[in-house]
Amino acid sequence: MLESGKERIIIIAPHADDEVLGCGGLIEKACRTQNEVKVVLGAIGDTHFWHANGTIASTTRKQEFADAMTYLGCKNYEIMYEDKESWMDTIPQRELVTKIDRLITDFRPTMAFIPYPSFHQDHQALFQACMAGLRPRPDLQIKLIAMFEYPFIVWQYPKIHDVGEFYLDISATVEKKVESLKKHRSQLREDSHMISPDTVRQWAKMRGLECGVAYAEKYYLMKGQFL
Question: Is residue 177 a contact partner of residue 204, using CB atoms and an 8 Å limit?
Answer without folding.
Answer: yes
